[in-house]
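A.,

Following up on our hallway conversation. Structure tokens first:
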């Protein structure tokens, strides 16, 4: 066995409390190097005759990526504390792995050899809102969704959809437009909307906030917004707003005061200013989002700034009953601010959803004291590379997704925000080069994956667009110009997700087969006694798939056609057209 590849740490995604009683423990080993793993464990205070009393339980292989195998066990310590190690076997070789290193025999004279989970404290358990697991989100860029009240149009507003958007164009989207088209979301099956910023700002995107306590007048007023939230709740739809707390806009009054009064401004410590007088060119001499002089970075360590932003966060929950905050550029704000943010908003509404915009490994924010989830761009990139771009084959895609699933605890994965596109990325159909069959497979994988999926407005009807501003076109409302077949495909997948708990966040995903020659995938989703089998042909050829296990004695229901049959042969073959798929619910019948 390659000892250098064996890895565990009693923290984060390798050892964590899944709930108030249950610990999850993972181990990583070199791929195809270890045949079996047993967890050696016991209560640190259980001794008899001078020996520590240890138990052994087998761990299961929970997945593999390009380099490693991952092993998993769920365990309920009677007294909520645990010392543990691992017994690894490969052929005739057997080793014991502990915090102090490797041994031939398991030490029983001192528990200090072993990894330690000191105590399962309820307050330390990662707890995200339960409702999120069953939510399908829909991201709305308010300026481009629908113009319902033309009297609010900003100066220079263009006729709806009359031309492609530019970084500075306006088309007059507003809250009334969303209200008028809420039935579109209900028909699709959406039960959560995420709105990009709605607060007063000069741009069309509103990420350059002037006043965090005021609605931008082009969208409507607070009464209209309250009506929108109430209507959504009446329809069973949660509402999440976008908080831009990393930076403000150039015209934010405190920053304008600093521009006017320089070092004498009472707001000078609200920002990260390196030198006075302030200059904006060629690069600003104050910290900003990227190097954009119009977005000065806020000093969230300043007590006044912190209190101002926490007041903002709690105000919109308390006064309008919103259900979540999406946090822009969340990784550039200090961790302590986010800890206090969580405490403040959860005190007002305990089941509010806190979603951070982070594009990279986010474990430091997901330990239960800051965010409930992050935008799962590693999932996004993996899915697009396989289904849309043909950059990786089936086995590498499975490796990527397995790595994604093992990067975080399971209870984190269950509420992870899984998107295929957003206002910051080219539209998925454009990435698919217009191939709607590929888009359908992307939706299938997204909506059957662990986590909470998000659909970017218009993707469900086949809208296209490149990088910003191309991805921010006006929503198409003429049904003759909508792809209703694609809409119905997404609608049906959402219904399946709502009907079968194993289909979505509650189900455990396991790759059964990947074939690089045919580029097909077989995976299962399992919850309790319910198993759903997925077969996906990500190629332009018709293929025949012989499933790698027996279904004899099982009843299979095709969830797409509702056809049922009992498997009587040991071998099951499936024919799939180009970019075709099959979804079977598997039940015991004999």
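Then the amino acids I'd put at each of the 590 positions:
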């Amino acid at each position: 066995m390659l000892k250098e590849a064996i890895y565990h740490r009693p923290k984060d995604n390798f050892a964590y409390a899944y709930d108030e009683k249950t610990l999850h423990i993972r181990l990583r080993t070199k791929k195809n190097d270890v045949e079996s793993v047993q967890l050696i464990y016991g209560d640190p205070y259980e001794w008899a005759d001078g020996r520590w009393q240890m138990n052994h339980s087998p761990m299961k292989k929970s997945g593999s990526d390009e380099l490693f195998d991952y092993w998993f066990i769920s365990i309920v310590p009677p007294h909520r504390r645990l010392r543990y190690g691992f017994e690894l076997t490969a052929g005739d070789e057997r080793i014991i792995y502990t915090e102090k290193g490797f041994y031939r025999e398991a030490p029983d004279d001192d528990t200090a050899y072993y990894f330690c989970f000191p105590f399962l404290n309820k307050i330390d358990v990662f707890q995200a809102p339960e409702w999120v697991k069953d939510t399908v989100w829909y991201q709305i860029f308010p300026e481009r969704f629908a113009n319902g009240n033309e009297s609010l149009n900003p100066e220079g507003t263009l006729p709806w959809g009359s031309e492609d958007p530019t970084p500075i164009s306006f088309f007059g989207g507003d809250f009334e437009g969303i209200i008028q088209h809420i039935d579109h979301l209900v028909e699709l099956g959406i039960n959560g909307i995420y709105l990009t910023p709605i607060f007063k700002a000069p741009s069309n995107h509103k990420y350059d906030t002037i006043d965090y306590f005021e609605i931008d007048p082009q969208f409507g007023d607070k009464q209209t917004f309250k009506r929108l939230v109430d209507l959504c709740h009446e329809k069973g739809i949660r509402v999440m707003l976008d908080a831009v707390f990393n930076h403000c806009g150039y015209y934010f009054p405190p920053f304008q005061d600093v521009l006017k009064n320089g070092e004498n401004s009472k707001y000078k410590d609200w920002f990260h200013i390196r030198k006075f007088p302030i200059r904006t060119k060629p690069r600003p001499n104050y910290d900003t989002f990227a190097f954009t002089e119009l977005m000065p970075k806020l000093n969230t360590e300043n007590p006044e700034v912190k209190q101002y932003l926490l007041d903002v966060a709690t105000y919109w929950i308390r006064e309008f009953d919103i259900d979540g905050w999406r946090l822009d550029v969340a990784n550039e704000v200090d961790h302590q601010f986010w800890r206090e943010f969580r405490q403040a908003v959860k005190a007002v509404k305990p089941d509010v959803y806190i979603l951070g915009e982070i594009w990279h490994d986010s474990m430091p924010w997901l330990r239960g004291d800051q965010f409930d989830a992050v935008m799962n761009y590693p999932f996004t990139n993996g899915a697009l590379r396989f289904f849309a771009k043909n950059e990786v084959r089936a086995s590498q895609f499975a490796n990527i997704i397995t790595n994604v699933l093992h990067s975080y605890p399971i209870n984190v994965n269950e509420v992870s925000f899984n998107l295929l596109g957003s206002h910051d990325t080219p539209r998925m159909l454009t990435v698919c080069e217009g191939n709607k069959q590929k888009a359908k497979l992307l939706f299938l994988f997204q909506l059957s994956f662990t986590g909470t999926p998000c659909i970017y407005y218009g993707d469900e009807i086949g809208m296209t667009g490149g990088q910003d501003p191309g991805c921010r076109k006006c929503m198409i409302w003429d049904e003759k110009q909508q792809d209703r077949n694609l809409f119905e495909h997404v609608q049906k997948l959402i219904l399946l997700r709502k009907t079968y708990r194993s289909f979505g966040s509650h189900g455990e995903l396991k790759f059964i087969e990947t074939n690089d020659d045919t580029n097909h995938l077989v995976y299962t989703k399992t919850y309790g006694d319910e198993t759903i089998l997925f077969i996906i042909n990500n190629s332009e050829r018709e293929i025949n798939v012989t499933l790698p296990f027996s279904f004899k004695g099982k009843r299979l229901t095709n969830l797409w056609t509702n056809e049922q049959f009992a498997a009587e042969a040991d071998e099951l073959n499936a024919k799939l057209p180009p970019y075709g798929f099959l979804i079977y619910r598997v039940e015991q019948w004999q």
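Residues 44 and 111 are 6 Å apart (CA to CA). Curious whether your intuition agrees with the design.

B.
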